Amino acid sequence: MAGLRERQKAARERRILEAASAKFRSHGYRSVKIEDLAEMAEVSVGTVYNYYETKGDILIATVAMEVEEVIAAGAPILANPPQRVDDALLALIYQYYDHSLEYLSKEMWRAAIAHSIEHPNTPSGRRYAEQDRRLAAQVTELIRVLQGRKLVRQNLIATDLGTLIFGALNQAFIEFVKQDDITLVQLRTQIAAQIAPVASLMSGDAPVTNQ
Amino acid sequence: MAGLRERQKAARERRILEAASAKFRSHGYRSVKIEDLAEMAEVSVGTVYNYYETKGDILIATVAMEVEEVIAAGAPILANPPQRVDDALLALIYQYYDHSLEYLSKEMWRAAIAHSIEHPNTPSGRRYAEQDRRLAAQVTELIRVLQGRKLVRQNLIATDLGTLIFGALNQAFIEFVKQDDITLVQLRTQIAAQIAPVASLMSGDAPVTNQ
DNA sequence: GAAAAAACTTGAACAGCCTCATCTTTTAAG
DNA sequence: CTTAAAAGATGAGGCTGTTCAAGTTTTTTC
Question: Is a pLDDT exceeding 70 seen at residue B210?
Answer without folding.
Answer: no
